[in-house]
């Protein structure tokens, strides 16, 4: 089966999470492609979809919202999952973070099976206006990498199991 891992990222942290998911799916024998959500022209080649978005100011990235709106109706009957990335908290706290309203809307449009929230990454290397905010937050002790690759990969293995089960039926 071919799986699309679409993502909307601001500073690259969510893109890396999407690649970790795609890597893990490929390790289980699936054909997985990690692509920016705004660059996906069509989902016809994919039997399953994972959509991820950076969380900023408690909201989803516009590219992820547009992806869900555009492809949600076409995803009926296909396995789909969503994830959010962004809280600057440890993995245990992030696991308990419910999806934001925009993620819930995407889940409804896409008929998803599950949502996960993963920690974010805040680095002082960001550029532009966001970089100014990031540098200020990092300087005040809020920076760091709060992503947990092992938790992301475990979630991806759950997805792989569900996709492979769906493939057999």
From TrEMBL:
EC main class here is oxidoreductase
In Gene Ontology terms, what is one molecular function of this protein? FMN binding
The record's EC number reads 1.3.5.3
- Key words, A-Z: Oxidoreductase
Output the superkingdom of the source species: Bacteria
InterPro entries associated with the record: Flavodoxin/NO_synth, Flavodoxin_dom, Flavoprotein-like_sf
The cross-references to Pfam families, in alphabetical order and at most eight, read: Flavodoxin_5
Q: Where does the Flavodoxin-like domain lie?
A: 3-160
Matching entries from PROSITE patterns are given as: FLAVODOXIN_LIKE
Write the protein's name: Menaquinone-dependent protoporphyrinogen oxidase
